[in-house]
Amino acid sequence: MNFEAFVGNLTEPVSGRHWSRREIQRQIAVRKHDFLLAGIEPGDRVLILFGNRLEFFAELLAIWSLGACAIPVDARLTAFEVSKLVETAQARISVIDDHSSAETRSALASTVIRHTLEPSGNSEAATHSSRQGFHPRLDDDALILFTSGSTGDPKGVVHTHRSLLARWVTLKQSLGLDRYRRSLCVLPTHFGHGLICNCLYPWLSGCDLFIAPPFKPDLIMRLGSLIDEHQISFMSSVPSVWSLALQTAPPPERGSLERVHVGSAPLSENTWTRVRQWAGTEEVFNAYGITETGSWVAGTTGGQVVPESGLIGEPWGASIRILEATDPDNPIDGGRECETGQTGMVWLHTPALMKGYFQRPDLTDGAVRQGWFMTGDIGLIDERGRLFLRGRERDEINKGGLKVFPSDVDEVVEQFRSTRDVCTFGFEDTFYGENVGIAVVLSDTGDETVLGLYDWVANHLAEHKHPARWYLLDEIPRTSRGKINRDSVCQACQALTPLNIRELLGKRSGGGK
Predict the structure, then answer these.
(1) What pLDDT does 163 receive?
(2) Distance of CA 446 to the CA centre of its chain
(3) H/E stretch holding 21
(4) What's the pLDDT score for residue 325?
(5) Which of 138, 149, 169, 182 is the most interior residue, by most CB within 10 Å?
(6) Distance (Å, rounded) from C-alpha 100 to C-alpha 77?
(7) Residues of the chain with pLDDT > 90: what percent?
(8) How many CB atoms lie within 10 A of CB 286?
């Protein structure tokens, strides 16, 4: 597989740096030469401790061309976290940049360290080395992406070149390439959504890629002008990007944006409609994806789509089953398939399925049964064969036997006029077993606004879904991928004093006398 022969151009729209296809090929050749000098061999694992810049992609393709496996890592990790990943992944070489601290370098002492901005520059030797590439085989390990904590017991998803190629082929069949000819990525390149689909799918197919720093508020606030300036035709994102963009960024005006994907969590009907209006295109897709399945595996394509909360759509090169598991030890054989419209557990079958969790056959066996992957998501298939998501199994709140999906509460609260962000979570309750808590960021935190939100929830949600504890935050904690971890938000709120809603209601009642 000669990756560099088919790539598109690369641009950093913030810095203005640009590499043509010829320059990309030269940069890859130089890095291949340096990796060979460092003693790289097929099968070696290489950590890349930076991302979202031109050099990242040259390093990645150089690693692959020499038959090695790349491990993109979040650059914000501490030295302790980095050392844990080095140990877990058994990396032989690490690639750093100018932002890597002395402490991080010390944590990498057991590996060969290369600086991405200090290549040999020996063009003749590099050209010769590039001809000596090992060229990977389809079943060679290509990527290890860590999807859980970087301390304790990190979990690395292993993708081969075969599984990645399967994802890109199925996406091309389902989505085509025309809309992706000028793609913008504002997501991190150390996880599946940003790397495999937003970046590599279009770029390795010859489309131009514009790569920006991830989750930078000042960048999102001028997203519309960035799209206009570079005539962006496609971008992917997560709901947290839109929670800021819709409030602060003037929309694009030149009409170049043709398609938008949103992943990590389904869009609510309200936000979905607003994103369409902002983007100036009807092609706003919910893109359902999991790192283990090579990210995008289903979405809202084909014909006119009316936004609905939780709607994902049809599979992209995958099969979906909704099961009511009756035998936890053998859910595929023992699980009863749900009827149309019945909620159950979402299982996926796709040729882009991961090889497994790195050196954790126990975790792999627990998640993959007979080629089917247990997503941990709760959903249903409607009468038109479309997938809807209702939440995560671990997110489901069991309030005295009544099931509450946090996403249901989030959807209602985010439609309140002063809501800027929200996260609903479950907490232990001595009476109900579990109860509903909520953290919310409001543009106005006055008593009238808080009580207005309380009334809004009371009028729009069944009583058993009403939060028992309310917390006002300046910001909802998020992971490095921009996702909300409800358990983490719950833990953060436990150190705070919840709002005294009863007292506020008493004040309002007294004031009316």
Answers:
(1) 97
(2) 34
(3) helix 21-37
(4) 62
(5) 182
(6) 10
(7) 64
(8) 25
Cα–Cα distance between 204 and 445 in angstroms, integer? 48
Region 330-358: mean pLDDT is 87
Model confidence pLDDT, tens digit, residues 26-40 = 999 999 999 999 999
> Is residue 151 classed as helix, strand or coil in its secondary structure?
coil
Token couple for 385: 């064969």
What confidence tier does 75 reach under pLDDT thresholds 50, 70, 90?
confident
Residue 208, classified by CB atoms within 10 Å of its CB into exposed (0-12), middle (13-18) or buried (19+), is buried
Angle (CA) 34-39-42 rounded to 5° is: 100
Looking at residue 135, what is its pLDDT?
Answer: 74
| β-strand partners of 115 | 96
Strand partners, 391: 378
Neighbours of 434 (CB within 10 A): 17
Q: Mean pLDDT throughout 300-327?
A: 84
Residues sharing a CB contact under 8 Å with residue 457, sequence separation 6 or more, in sequence order: 409, 412, 413, 466, 467
Q: Is 0.85 surpassed by the pTM of this model?
A: no
Helix (H, G, I), strand (E, B) or coil at 432: coil
The CA-atom distances, in angstroms, between 6 and each of 196, 201, 205, 228, 348 are: 16, 11, 6, 26, 30
- Token output for 97: 């940049």
Cβ burial of 70 (10 Å; 0-12, 13-18, 19+) is: buried
User: Among candidates 501, 416, 412, which has minimal Cα distance to 462?
Assistant: 412
Task: Name the pLDDT band for 127 (thresholds 50, 70, 90).
Answer: low
> Which ranges in 73-222 belong to alpha helices (H)?
79-89, 102-107, 123-130, 161-175, 192, 201-203, 217-220
Phi, psi of 141 (to 5 degrees): -65, 135
The Cα 470–Cα 427 span in angstroms is: 12
Please count the CA atoms within 13 angstroms of the CA of 379 that sit on its side-chain side. 27
- The answer for residues whose C-beta is within 8 angstroms of residue 365's C-beta and 6 or more apart is none
CA angle 67, 73, 76 (to 5 degrees): 160
Q: What is the amino acid identity at position 258?
A: E
pLDDT at 276: 94
pLDDT at residue 152 tops 80: no
Q: How confident is the model at residue 132 (pLDDT cuts 50, 70, 90)?
A: low
CA–CA separation, 331 and 139 (whole Å): 28
Structure tokens at 463: 């009583």
Q: What percentage of the chain's residues is helix, strand, coil (to nearest 5)?
A: 35, 25, 40
d(CA 329, CA 165): 32
Residue 2 tokens, joined: 């000669």
CA distances from 272 to 232, 314, 386 (A): 20, 17, 17
Element (H or E) spanning 473, and its range? none
CA angle 29, 33, 37 (to 5 degrees): 170
